[in-house]
Write a sequence for this structure.
């Protein structure tokens, strides 16, 4: 994710509501860091400034595709640029030949969230069922970090889509932080705090 253009506006969720009970059962994995995702700078010995982005914890998966495939009730809560909240459904599909030959782990889509703030401007609708341009792609690298990219298949577009960074995966679901990939930075009292972001929970439900 690249540095973002400074825009003094806040992102809001539109048109989808979440009950207080759903939010109560969805716990922020970084409760003391509402701006968990932000650039930090360090100085190289040759005086060159280097920007660093945070990384989610490693997630150990014995059979990643089998463990992730399924349907989930997705709850998103905004901690920076909010507060707002929304819910919908996440579907991750078992791999086919095309998935096996690509870098992505799984493909899928979201239901009921196309018009919701962070997803509404994505290059590809989050609900897309197109195998070549799916609404959601799951990536799991050698560094054991698991991420779901929404609305930006193959990460082909700069400053686009939403990243769901997975912090925890259990038999019941997924928990982590989401980060808006658009060219927007939240500004409070003249200070740039980072992109609109928050946390999410995805609870497994029957297909």
């Amino acid at each position: 994710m690249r540095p973002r253009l400074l825009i003094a506006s806040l992102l809001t969720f539109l048109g989808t509501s979440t009950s207080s009970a759903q939010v109560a059962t969805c716990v922020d994995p970084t409760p003391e860091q509402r701006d968990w995702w932000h650039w930090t700078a360090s100085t190289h010995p040759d005086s060159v400034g280097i920007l660093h982005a945070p990384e989610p914890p490693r997630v150990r998966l014995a059979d990643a595709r089998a463990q992730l495939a399924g349907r989930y009730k997705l709850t998103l809560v905004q901690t920076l640029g909010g507060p707002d909240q929304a819910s919908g459904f996440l579907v991750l599909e078992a791999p086919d030949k095309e998935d096996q030959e690509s870098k992505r782990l799984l493909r899928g889509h979201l239901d009921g969230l196309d018009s919701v703030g962070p997803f509404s401007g994505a290059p590809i609708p989050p609900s897309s069922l197109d195998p070549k341009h799916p609404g959601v792609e799951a990536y799991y690298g050698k560094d054991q970090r698991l991420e779901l990219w929404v609305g930006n298949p193959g990460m082909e577009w700069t400053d686009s889509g939403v990243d769901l960074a997975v912090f925890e995966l259990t038999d019941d679901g997924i928990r982590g932080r989401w980060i808006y990939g658009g060219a927007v930075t939240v500004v409070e009292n003249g200070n740039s705090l980072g992109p609109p972001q928050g946390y999410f929970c995805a609870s497994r439900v029957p297909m």
Observations:
- Helices lie at 20-24, 64-68, 97-101, 117-120.
